[in-house]
Amino acid sequence: MATVVQMRKSDERSDHRHQQAMELMIRTDRLALERALVPQIDDIKECGLASKNILDEFHQYIATSDNDDPPPMEDWWYQFSDVFDFIVQTIDRPHFREGERLFDGDLMYRIWDLRRRTDEVRNFVRVAEDYFAEAEPNARAQCDFAEWRINGEGVIADYVRYSAVEIPGIVAGLKRMGALYNVL
User: Fold this and answer.
1) pTM of the predicted model, to two decimals?
2) Where are the beta strands (DSSP E) in 23-180?
3) Fewest CB within 10 A of the end CB: N or C in the chain?
4) Which of 123, 119, 168 is nearest to 148 (CA)?
5) Which residues contact 51 (CB under 8 A, 6 or more apart)?
6) pLDDT in tens, 15-50
7) 88 lies in which domain range?
């Protein structure tokens, strides 16, 4: 009987040491994930809401116009430019990138797709930024921008639509990861 009691105590100590070792292993991952989520989850959510607001403006404009085109870019450019810069800044933060290794497949794909689409639109955004930065663009700049608008404005409007629709899924995935690792 004494041997059984001693074996149980030994097993309990062994289980306790195993739990402590597992907790130390997971602690590093938890800290990395927490740094990836805080404050990025709120920042990405804010970007999604701002994109949805711009998209709502598109819908209101389309409802009162004779075509399916978004409102003139001058009406929404500055709001979009701020959102775009904030998206780029947020998904490029080193602690966000480091924590991505802990994301599940769905969230990894969503973040990859957001980065890919952001990179695809980046040059179009730069052209518009250069144009809108000029107080009084010269005739050449106006002509170049008019030519650019044929494709550029549509590409940027599509990015607004994409962001408004996809970012809520990214936020849900980030919350899911936070809950899984018990860091939110």
Assistant:
1) 0.84
2) none
3) N
4) 123
5) 83, 160, 163, 164, 167
6) 767 676 666 677 889 999 999 999 999 999 999 999
7) 2-180
The residue count of the chain comes to 184
- Maximum distance among all Cα pairs of the chain, rounded to whole angstroms: 98
d(CA 24, CA 130): 50
- Range 160-164 contact pairs with CB under 8 angstroms and sequence separation of 24 or more: 160/51, 160/54, 160/55, 160/58, 160/70, 160/76, 160/80, 161/55, 161/58, 162/117, 163/47, 163/48, 163/51, 163/83, 163/87, 163/114, 164/48, 164/51, 164/52, 164/54, 164/55
Alpha carbon distance 20, 96 (integer Å):
27
Phi, psi of 181 (to 5 degrees): -95, 0
How far from 177 is each of 64, 111, 127, CA to CA, in Å? Answer: 42, 13, 37
Identity of the amino acid at 55: L
